[in-house]
Amino acid sequence: MAAGERSSSDPFAPFAESYDAWYSTPLGAYADRVEKALLRQALDPLPGEEFLEVGSGTGHQALWLAAQGVRVVGVEPSEAMRRVAEDKLARASAEIRERVRFLAGVGERLPFPEAEFSAVYAVTALEFVADPSAVVREMWRVLVPGGRLVVGAIAGEGAWGELYREKGRDPESVYHGARFYTEEELRALIRDLPGAGRPAVLRGLYVSPSVREPAGRVCLDELEAQAEGRERPGFLVLRVEKMR
């Protein structure tokens, strides 16, 4: 998902309608379960809280969180991606529709006052921005004291990072020009945030991207792969709390 300014055109327009098809594949569905398990642990959502998603894309994460009772505002610069998200929202239940709204905007200039949201998060979004530090500073600005900032990212090291870098060699790929972060690079993004607590990084998706039909029991597969050292993690989730 896009989070900030990338170009004057909409580079995601050719991919918006097919972006969610990945989740219908066995590997995509598996990766989605793993990533959501990590995100849920990091976000710790409570019914009635209001979250901000920066780079909300097709609304995949926002609608999932709304189903858990959270109110979500999604900011997305790609008109094509927002259109897909709005179409999905229109087909959702009335309860979900009341909890979610999508807005046009960029992560570098969020259209909200300070201390507005109990959690601010971005998932596979900072990969696509020119100035990720500026986006993170804005996310921090609109976060309430005591709230949590969460960033989910494709791990730059390991098989998954290599896969997406290879895809990005194609100028027509959605991943062309994308950046994939190491754990240290993610930590560096929040190092100078004022009032930041001790960050935590959750790791997952140890299953190789060459496995087309991973077993359905996510935790068992993940723990076995991690213990055996078969792969480095493919997905990282950084969480940091804004001290009161």
From TrEMBL:
Any idea which UniProt keywords this protein has?
Answer: Methyltransferase, Transferase
Q: Name one GO molecular function term.
A: S-adenosylmethionine-dependent methyltransferase activity
The organism's place on the tree of life at top rank: Bacteria
- Domain called Methyltransferase type: residue spans: 52-151
Name one process (GO BP) from the record. methylation
**SUPFAM superfamilies, A to Z:** S-adenosyl-L-methionine-dependent methyltransferases
Instruction: Supply the name of the protein.
Output: Methyltransferase family protein
InterPro entries membership: Methyltransf_11, Methyltransf_Superfamily, SAM-dependent_MTases_sf
Keyword Transferase applies: yes
